[in-house]
Predict the 3D structure of the following.
Amino acid sequence: MREVAPQTQVADDERTAQLIQSLSERGVRDVRGTFVDSSGVLRSKQTPLARLGAFNRSGLGASNSWAVFGADDLLCMTPRFSAVGDMRLRADLDTVVDLGDGVAWTPLNLVDQQGSPLPYCPRTVLREQMRQASTSGLSVIAATEVEFTVYDGDRQPLGGAAYGWTRLSTYEHFVDSLSQALNFVGAPVEQLHAEYGPGQFEISVAPASPLAAADLNVLVRVVISRVARACGFQASFSPKPFADAIGNGAHSHLSFTRDGRSLLSGGDGPHGLTSDGQSILAAYVRYLPEMAGALASSVLSSMRLQPSTWSGAYACWGLENREAAVRLCAATLGNPHGANVEVKCVDPAANIYAAYAALVGVARRALESPEVLGPETTVDPATLSADERNELGIYLVGAEHADVLDNFAGSEVMREVLGEALVETILAVRRHEADLVGTDGIAAVAERLTFAWSA
Ligand code: GLU
Ligand code: MG
C-alpha cells in the first residue's frame, strides 16, 4: 500500500495503459470501487478494466445524495443533498488492488463535474487534514484493528472458545482461506485471533499513513466479507451484533512525530510523553464527546459504548487501561511500532476516513493550542463511585446517542476539521437512525443493520 497521500489527480495515459496491461495480465476483468458513506456503509460501482482510464479521468456518475444514504438505504435528504445534482466517483489509480477472480478494488474520490474535489468527500477531507498536520510539522501513523462476527449458513455465530484455539481449528478452512486472501492482496497482517464475543474474530494490520490505513481498513473488510461468503458464512461489522454480548470495535492506534521526533516517548512527562504528546492526549480526552460524532455515532455505537465491555466507554486516559477511551501504549519491547495511543471508542459503523480526519485534525490543533493533560486513570472507572468519577472528570463518551449528535452538531472543532458539509451528512444519517429507533425500537434496528457494514 502507498505511504504518501495521493492527490485526486488524473493519471497520464501512459501510466493508465501500463496499469491496465499489468492488471489484465493478472486476469483482472473488472474494477470495483468503494465510497464509504456517512453511515459507514460501502457504496460501489464497477467498470470493465478497459474503462479504467475513464473511471479515473471522468469518474462514474452518481447523485450527490449518495452522501446521505442511511444505513438502512433510506436517503436522508437535506437542502444541500437532494434529487438535483450529480457527482463523479473517481478511481484512485495509486490504489488498485487485484482481489483475485477477475476483480480489482479501488477506493473512490468524489469530485464535481469539473473534476474538483467535493467538500463532503471523506478521503479528500482526510487528505486535507494530513496536509495541514504536515504543515505544522506533525506526521501521523495509524492502524485500525478489525473486529467482526462470523455467522454460519443457519445464521448462528461460529462456535469455539474466546481467544481459543478451537474457533481457529474448527473453522480452519475459513481462517486459512482468509489468511491466503489477505496475503494475496498484500495486506500487512500482524495477527489474527478469536475474539471474546460469539463468533467474533480480530485482525490487526501494520500501521501506515492515515489515508493508506483507512484504505487498508476498507480492503481488509472487503476481503473478510468475500472469504466468509465463499465459505458459506456471513461476516458482520455491526458495532453491536448481540444485545447481551461484547460488540465489534475499530480501535484505532495512532503515533505521532514532529520534525522526526516521537511525541509519545522520550519526553519528561508521564510514561515518557513529550509536552506535545501530553497535549494531544489531553485534546483527545477533552474533545471525545464532540469527536464521537465521527468516531462512534451510530445508534448501535451507543449500544456498544457501555462500561465493562472494553469498548473505551469512559473519556479518560491511562497506560494500558482497556476501559479508557484513550489507552496509552508506551514504548516498550512489547510495542514493536513504538509508543502509540489507542482510541478505543471507534467502531466499524464509523466512516473510517472521517474518523481519522477527526483524530489527525484534533492532534494538529493540540500542537497549535496546547492543552493540559489531566490525571491518569489507573483503575477501571466502573470501580469508582459516581462522585469519584465526577471529581476526576471521567465521564461516558457516547452512551447517550442524543448527546453524541448534539455535541457533534454544536462542535466548532469538528466543523473546522471535517467541514460543514461532512458534519451535515453525518448528522442527517445518524438522526435518521435515531428516528428509526423511535419508531421500531433498538432491538429491531440492531437486527436490521446486522450486515449493513459488510462488504
Ligand atoms: N470488542 C471490544 C470492543 O467492542 C474490545 C475488546 C478488546 O479489547 O479487544 O471494543
Ligand atoms: Mg479486540
